[in-house]
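Troubleshooting: if your tokenizer reports a length mismatch, compare your output against this known-good record of 435 residues.
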Amino acid sequence: MNQKPAPTEQDSVAEPFLQERLTSLDAYRGLVMISLAFGGFGLAATARNHLENQPDSALWAEILRQFTHIQWTGCTYWDLIQPSFMFMVGLSMAYSYAKRQKNGASYLGMLAHALFRSIILIGLGIFLISNNDASTNWSLMNVLSQIGLGYTFVFLLWRKPKIIQWLAAIAILGTTWSLYETHSNTGLTPNQDHSDVGVSREWADEHLSEASPAWHKNANFGHAVDRWLLNLPNQYLPRKQPFEFNAGGYQTINFLPSIVTMLFGLMCGEFLRSGASKKQVIQTLLIAGALGILWGYNLHQTGVSPLIKRLWSPSWVIFSTSCCCLLLLVSYLLFDVMKLRWLAFPLIVVGTNSIVMYLMSMLLKPWVAGAIKTHAGPDIFERFSADFQPTVQAVAVGLVFWLICFHLYRKRLFVRIWKDEQELPDFSFMTILNL
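Known-good structure output:
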């Protein structure tokens, strides 16, 4: 009887990615959720404490910059949290709907499923942003609402030919750019106070120098759309007070270019499922990430499209999605190539229950911090070091959330809205000890 030849090293390198579990996706999702739920580990507030005594410290100044949002143009680690959410939604979709199709789901059934997810996400976003408000806040600018507004459109591009997906991305970004650039009455007048739209003269002088008038804060096409949309008659969107401006400069119309962020994630997921070898995955993510960052930054530097997260400008879509590709590459190398499961474990505990972690982070931080003080003493967080008190508190609260997710993980209980359909990993204590 002929025996099957043993696999060679070359065969191992060319093993289709489709046959492997995408641990890197859960780990990447977990990293983003831990960063958010742990409040950036309190590093921004801790950095401010140290800068009061060490105003010339370049290290603490950079830590503060990386763990706070850029005021208008540019990018930090903290700015990559939202695009990572959206990129992973698209990436997960490639797995989720392929599995549903394999299990016999019809296209109309899957479309209905996508619509249902969109409605749930929009509703959940409104619920969270209305927390502690006296009435419903019909804002559609937070991450869940933005994902919900675009989710069904991304589904409609699932399994479409690559040329159609690329043309859709180009059309959406081109339309977004044109709407902003051709809109009349845009921009803020230099050397004037614009408190009517939440922009002081000092803030404008400091932060709007790299943005053309079409992309000024609360004086652009997106702001004009919200002034109309969010001031519809009360029978459509009940409001106690008229909408004037969003303090952060975020706009509802951001969901349009956000579709492209999710679409790029979908395209990435479809590539990973295509049978590509590990070498091809590494090369593609590296090249796409590096070229995209250069392209997006060049659009900013040449003044074609400023790099603005708060408006989800076309250059931001390209730049931030490319950063997501590189972050996914690092996760893939560590957890799908090097198989460092012990390192992936704390991330996957959160990544497989990301919606629970997100809800706890949005709703329970003050309550958990107060409960810890009640039982451990009101000065528990200051006992270690007053300067590091924000970090100690953020990590303590985050650990409570992590332990809840760990308990759910041990019980195999998972709450998901946009879950991927892969088999969940088995990370028992014995599995970890045996690595």
